[in-house]
Design brief:
single chain; 149 residues; alpha+beta; 1 helix; 11 strands; 35% helix
């Protein structure tokens, strides 16, 4: 601040204002990439949780309808819930992952099949990858329990 002989002026000079704005912009430039990374991690958790929900629902359908249901990967960004009708797997619903996300079973062409007693075969792991190449696994155990790790 500048002072004059007959009193003082209050406020900031244009130069001081530019310095403060420059500091704020530098801090924001450092924080924004981290914020986008965190956002993608939250989206990854949401996509994995969604798969857990659909797979758990397939297990419930297998029990209530006394029929086999399975979760299968159609391609790198689509999975489906299918029902075994007279020996033929029929797709009940398919789900697309958000742009940039991918899904893959741990072993090629592996599916998680749920049976009328609620159990599943084989133990299956689906790996979901986000655009930052971070991953979450969704595991289906022999007991039929589904969880994200």
């Amino acid at each position: 601040m500048r002072t004059s002989g007959c009193g003082s002026q209050k406020g900031m000079s244009m130069f001081e204002l530019l310095i403060v704005l420059s500091i704020i912009m530098v801090i924001m430039a450092m924080a924004l990439p981290q914020m986008f990374s965190v956002r993608e991690d939250y989206r990854l958790t949401a996509v994995a949780t969604e798969l857990v929900g659909y797979a758990s629902n397939a297990r419930i359908l297998a029990i209530t309808e006394n029929s086999d249901f399975r979760v299968t990967v159609i391609d790198s960004d689509t999975y489906a819930i299918q029902e075994d009708i007279s020996g033929t797997w029929t797709t009940d619903a398919s789900y697309d992952l958000p742009s940039g996300f991918s899904i893959a079973p741990a072993n090629a062409n592996e599916t998680a099949e749920f049976h009328s007693r609620g159990n599943a075969t084989p133990v299956t792991t689906f790996t979901i990858t986000n655009p930052n190449n971070n991953t979450r696994d969704v595991v289906v155990s022999l007991s039929g329990r589904v969880n994200a790790q």
